[in-house]
Amino acid sequence: MTHTVTSSYVKASDPLYADCLEWLNLEAELLDARRFREWLDMLSQDIDYRVPVRTGRNDPDHSVSFSTTAFHMLETWHALEERVRRFESGYAWSEIPPSRTRRFVSNVRVLQPGMSHEAQVKSNLLVYRVRGDLPPELLCGERQDVLVREHDRWRLLRRLVLLDQTSLPTQNLGVFL
Amino acid sequence: MTHTVTSSYVKASDPLYADCLEWLNLEAELLDARRFREWLDMLSQDIDYRVPVRTGRNDPDHSVSFSTTAFHMLETWHALEERVRRFESGYAWSEIPPSRTRRFVSNVRVLQPGMSHEAQVKSNLLVYRVRGDLPPELLCGERQDVLVREHDRWRLLRRLVLLDQTSLPTQNLGVFL
Amino acid sequence: MTHTVTSSYVKASDPLYADCLEWLNLEAELLDARRFREWLDMLSQDIDYRVPVRTGRNDPDHSVSFSTTAFHMLETWHALEERVRRFESGYAWSEIPPSRTRRFVSNVRVLQPGMSHEAQVKSNLLVYRVRGDLPPELLCGERQDVLVREHDRWRLLRRLVLLDQTSLPTQNLGVFL
Amino acid sequence: MSIEARVADPRLSPRLRDLLDDVDRTLEEGLVPLRIYNDPELYELELERIFARCWVCVAHESEIPNPGDYVLRTIGEDPWIVIRDDNGLVHVLFNSCRHRGTQVCGADQGNTDLFRCPYHGWTYDNSGALVVVPERLEAYKRLDLREWGLHQAPQMDTYQGLIFACLDPDAPSLADYLGDFTWYMDLSFGMARGGMEVVGEPNRWVMAGDWKSAAENFSGDPYHTASLHRSTFFLRPETNGRSQPSQIGLRGNVADCNGHGASLILAAQDQPGFFSYPPEVVSLLDPAMVSPAQWDLASRMRFIFATAFPNFSWVHSGGTDPGNGVGTRRLSYMSFRQWQPRGPGKIEVWSWVLVPKEASAEYKDRSNRLSIAHFGASGNMEQDDTVVWGSIARSARSVYARKANLKINLQMGTEGMSEAKVMTDWPGPGLVYDRGLEEGSQRTILRHWLSELNRP
Amino acid sequence: MSIEARVADPRLSPRLRDLLDDVDRTLEEGLVPLRIYNDPELYELELERIFARCWVCVAHESEIPNPGDYVLRTIGEDPWIVIRDDNGLVHVLFNSCRHRGTQVCGADQGNTDLFRCPYHGWTYDNSGALVVVPERLEAYKRLDLREWGLHQAPQMDTYQGLIFACLDPDAPSLADYLGDFTWYMDLSFGMARGGMEVVGEPNRWVMAGDWKSAAENFSGDPYHTASLHRSTFFLRPETNGRSQPSQIGLRGNVADCNGHGASLILAAQDQPGFFSYPPEVVSLLDPAMVSPAQWDLASRMRFIFATAFPNFSWVHSGGTDPGNGVGTRRLSYMSFRQWQPRGPGKIEVWSWVLVPKEASAEYKDRSNRLSIAHFGASGNMEQDDTVVWGSIARSARSVYARKANLKINLQMGTEGMSEAKVMTDWPGPGLVYDRGLEEGSQRTILRHWLSELNRP
Amino acid sequence: MSIEARVADPRLSPRLRDLLDDVDRTLEEGLVPLRIYNDPELYELELERIFARCWVCVAHESEIPNPGDYVLRTIGEDPWIVIRDDNGLVHVLFNSCRHRGTQVCGADQGNTDLFRCPYHGWTYDNSGALVVVPERLEAYKRLDLREWGLHQAPQMDTYQGLIFACLDPDAPSLADYLGDFTWYMDLSFGMARGGMEVVGEPNRWVMAGDWKSAAENFSGDPYHTASLHRSTFFLRPETNGRSQPSQIGLRGNVADCNGHGASLILAAQDQPGFFSYPPEVVSLLDPAMVSPAQWDLASRMRFIFATAFPNFSWVHSGGTDPGNGVGTRRLSYMSFRQWQPRGPGKIEVWSWVLVPKEASAEYKDRSNRLSIAHFGASGNMEQDDTVVWGSIARSARSVYARKANLKINLQMGTEGMSEAKVMTDWPGPGLVYDRGLEEGSQRTILRHWLSELNRP
Ligand code: FES
Ligand code: FES
Ligand code: FES
Ligand SMILES: [Fe+3]
Ligand SMILES: [Fe+3]
Ligand SMILES: [Fe+3]
């Protein structure tokens, strides 16, 4: 599932690549700025969003070390919206005051789509997060996304976040990846 | 001030985007190589360069947590040049031997300019810095730049560095951000 | 040798830039996925691959602080292939189970080539690596590559990895940089 | 334990001796030194006298169903392998070669018939027996292989599918250790025909906080819900930000049951029992597996939070599909967890989702999603718990707390403080209060903690 | 303190006892063990006996001008809230709920009338009084709210707008603690009509180094300027890399003033006084606020560096707009700071810029820029200080320094070493030398340090 | 050392005293407590009693060939400068200014005639003498410059180009310390006309692991090759994954030579000797530089692994160009290294490549490449060593290992265990066994370690 390496990527000079890059950068900006409602609007209502638990199995090509049943997050759009609603409630103490995050999105790769209204995008993500006087946290991994064209906008239809850490070095996973 | 999220970014396939990306990469290379004079030449004489202190205020969308009066750096071109002159003096002990830095510039976003001779660029910056046998330091944040076209070259007219850290995890801020 | 800063870079909108970017992203993906054979196939048989030891000499512009004789790696294609063969043997205990890595490639710069079948590429590399319950490791530096066009494919002809660390913060250098 | 015995304890520094005596003096009136939640020297003592001496949960049997299946686990901070051998027996093996100490297993789970030590090749079978010593005939002529198998945990036992180990050979049995507390464990772990099973691997994360804060909380701290978890009230249309005091009364607060504690909420008349299991799952429950009294209580249960000392806790509760928000569909979830010590003021949480093995795949998926929405690193409830526990550890390490001997307040439920009363008609064992407004179970956890630390 | 009293100190290990006695033996001849600048056990003692016992600056009044304004601060490493209550009174409150210890305030500054503890909702007003306990009537019937307000620092007082706290209830008053040293504080903090105010939040960074290195340096180490800060001589055309020995003579080195120290430079004839304040600011200074002797000295002041033990320092000096380089425009800047202990060999610097409140916005901006150019994490002067203090801490932690008992040299100004002479005609208090070439104030800081550590 | 003497050692805690006595009791039977490989308190004792007391290698002379050349090095964790002065003499200087302790040298290598301390400008020449004190005439009238030069290591000496230092002035000489072990050092370091030289700077990395694990291994652990390094057998077509037991017999295992150890393999009849040096290099070897017995043995040597206590090791071996895989081209390589303590369970490896100075540039390049392929951070062999040493340190820090006093097994070679026999006809010094299947040298390293720790 997780590691099909493809060499037929879309060129960076292709408009589709530019679209995907812009989408990812905008998403990162919205999340770092905690504009969660606007972020939700970048997601398809049919989104499948998942962050599987990573194990330390002996797994020479990392093809089986992600759990298929255990997840840090396993979300529908409504489940994500519920999380956003919580942050908006004014009583989500874990983020009062909010953590400060910075997302570094790199190694963006776009797959030549089979269907013209979809794009498959892989990217590497490093999230730097700090809150209060606790030491900073670094979360990192690869994201495998499917963007879909809806009403002239790209929206996220599927996201698989493949974290590198088996045990998350974070006070909580109160951030979207 | 600090967090206007815009979705009308210039496409990555646009020449303006390429210009800005190249400018940022060249700048990072010069700074990592400590070619400070050449870097100064990339700045407009009218530059306004500032690194505000970040606070841990309760600030759900990070719009008010940057100080408007307290700064780690608050510089004119001449003030920056003075810093460079210090490094060139041969007696700037804090950098003898020099720290070794690596700048990771990502999430580059270019705003459709109102005026054709200006470009607004946002980017995320991670600086890895190490010196002697002290542990490495990581500084990170977003930069909001305004580049201006002067004599057929882009120069930096305004820079706002929005750090994620309230207390800088660094021996000193002897690097340009 | 190490720090010739050039400002005549190829524009990001140029197809050559797109080629190089794609090449680097694909390479990072293969290495993170431990598909070493496929990676070997991205290298020219004439490759010169080297990771010099970095010193802490007083070296204001970092031009002389890389050793010219001492290396962490100093490899021909066959020497690299031997390393890959070791990993494939099933007895390379240092990577059983394998470490989990994520390569962040940024600041990609492509030099206007003198010869049309070659491209000079600089990039900044951050490698996040974690294994077992040991703390994560961060390796970082700049890579100076020469890609060469062979049989309609770009292959790596020369790589110089300029690490920022004098003493590597890693259990071993069991990863390719 | 008498004062004399304590004074004779050679491993305690005078400072720790004073600290423990101080706890002893005021615990019953509900006053406890703040600093016990973050003290490096005390932490070392906890590792020695609690984690290396009490029964600690190391796995659920469903994690290693087949011969050769194993998982790496920790007891305190120490590395152990939990494995099912070729005969189906479970072993808890110290992950360290008997030759020179190398860890014989690097992968954190898998299936194997042998552990081959990478260093020199000594090889053990999956029951821990040493079976191959390279060059033995020439190099180890007198080595008795039977004496050099992997170290086994001095005691190992299971209860309702949970595997426990104990590093003290002289400790009482698991049955004695849990005692009557199994009555409550049965309600969550022992009523489904076919048993319970984990939904995959544990969700793990490392956070600031002391393990005792978490253990106390899960042993029964209903008082915190209305404040700390208020944000979750906005996620259900029927509450929309208001807490529901009327529901708070229908409680059974198990303040002490053999040194462990729990907090239960019973269903109101119009509410489903059986932890909100939907009918398809209720039909899997078997009254024959428990006593009539247990069955009756289970039929009225809305949820339970519980802690078996030292660091095993679980929550079993119900809700609606995340984001659905409508209160009509019944759905249950269960998470058991360990608060693993990882240094002073630091824990690693291991959180498993548990479901009835014979439930439908669709139910398991929904229950898993509901559990993830509430508990685990990203849980809408657990997120908030993590920050207050971290924040307690932060103030606890202050020099001023030490110098001025600041005391926290655990007085709810002490003489004359609360309206909570011990129930005499409660069907289950232990000292049980009729409402959540008392902190008895949290004092119980600390009393248990103190008595272990006081034992030389 | 007699040797007997010391031996009887039960909290000191023999190793620390020896170390302190060793300091005692040779400090007066200017020899001090190098290892005191990085020793984990000694560091803990400093937290206990210095930071939890001496008067420590926690804020400037202008940081919290309005009722409800607060800032989070540390005393040693401990977390405190400094807040102005609804009546305008300043309180220093321990940031830890009296119920279970949770930090009641997470934001590092803000304005509030109430602190609501997230865990269970106990709520305190902005004077620290406990005002709401959820479910109190049912759960805490006998709880006397008046006894359960937030802990207040045992002592709090202000001087010239600076807020100090002291965690030892038996310590002398702030006035006694500062003593005559206020005479020098007045020059910088107490001469502007309308008072001084901070320019925003402190600039903070965490660095390798021992707090004593920084405290000593600011108490008077003019000897280091010509070497360490030589790079800054290249920034002014009139010096262009050369030091200016002629200026070094016009000094008043306050080697000891009630255990604190300072170093002053007086203006040469052609140089401006009043810390280089421009005329528009000089016109804001009020001779009535100080004594005639203070006014006279101030009128001749070029700059001052000073430390009030343990970790409060300030610099008040002048210069030209950064990058301007021309010596004609008069401009003054002032930075006060704290050297916060953050572990052995580690400090967090907090650096504030201070300006006369009634100065023009343009002046404040220029002064702020000048201050940033010199001091703070990026300061052209302070950068160099940070690395030598870090480097002292590095060599101080060596085993060889401990085994061979290496001593550093603080002999400048001891008997017969220096030409520096105590001035008998100096207008201010304390033991004051006529030039910078002596290290008396640094020995004073260490003497003060030693006497606090020796007190059980 | 008698038990009484030990009891009187005031610097040892009872816990450490017990631990060392426990080692003493069972070391000879080959049982050693696992916990000695990761114990914070023991680590501190090792720094004090081993690294600050034994002869430690600090550089090779070829690293600093010219006057003024220097390198920064550590002894234990302490910072020292190794420099060649203007007269060509080597000095080992403590990197800490005698004034206030600042490190006088920041660059980790270079060439200088003077070290100018940045803080106040005290300046030392390249022999460590204090030559400039700014403002001396005015500020330091009685300072005797001759007494304030940089601290020199109490003892310094060289052997075969290797520079050693010793921080204990009362220690025996380097010659006495190495004793007969020089016989084996000569084979690698002392046979090439014109001497040996380093190929550039050391390759350095920081890893989990205890320095003793590495020292023991290099002192002679041939048993581990077939298992741990099996992957490398796949890199040569002639082995293709199989180990070569026939070759294992031709050994000389130097189990004890003045407290140091080594393991040698001799060439079979069809194999080259002289460490596989090709003819062009063999022609550089000079029989006159060694004894006839040494020359004869060298002519039959395939490789050697060796450790001079505490942390100096080297490997000298041969092979074919990396990736070439064909066994016909003769090529030798040599790496010497230090296992630098960097905290409990942590080391920094410094690894140098050494070649005969007069060999051709082409040969040096090939030898360097071969060395890098095998040893150093990326070495195909050393990679595997790093993980097992890290893993031993991980299990060693477990509380259970401490509580249950788990013992590792070093019994190979003890009474009746192994076929290995002491050779009576061995040409070299020390106690030498006829095969690799014994762990005598590793017990020797630990015996040496114990005797240093037991010495107050
Ligand atoms: S350590 Fe396991 S075989 Fe030697
Ligand atoms: S801890 Fe503050 S209310 Fe309970
Ligand atoms: S510390 Fe070196 S000159 Fe003062
Ligand atoms: Fe909770
Ligand atoms: Fe200074
Ligand atoms: Fe090896």
Summarize the structure.
The complex is a heterohexamer, with 3 copies of chain A (177 residues) and 3 copies of chain D (456 residues). Helix content of chain A is 20%, strand content 41%.
Topology:
The complex is a heterohexamer, with 3 copies of chain A (about 180 residues) and 3 copies of chain D (about 450 residues).
Chain A: H1 15-32, H2 36-40, E1 43-54, E2 66-75, H3 77-88, E3 100-111, E4 118-130, E5 137-150, E6 153-163
Parallel strand pairs in A: 1-6
Antiparallel strand pairs in A: 1-2, 3-4, 4-5, 5-6
Chain D: H1 3-7, H2 14-26, E1 31-33, H3 40-51, E2 55-60, E3 69-75, E4 78-84, E5 90-94, E6 109-111, E7 114-116, E8 123-125, E9 130-132, H4 136-139, E10 155-159, E11 162-166, H5 174-178, H6 182-189, E12 196-198, E13 203-208, H7 211-220, H8 225-228, H9 230-233, H10 245-248, E14 251-257, E15 260-266, H11 279-282, H12 292-299, E16 301-308, E17 312-319, E18 331-341, E19 346-356, H13 361-374, H14 382-396, H15 399-403, E20 407-409, E21 431-433, H16 440-454
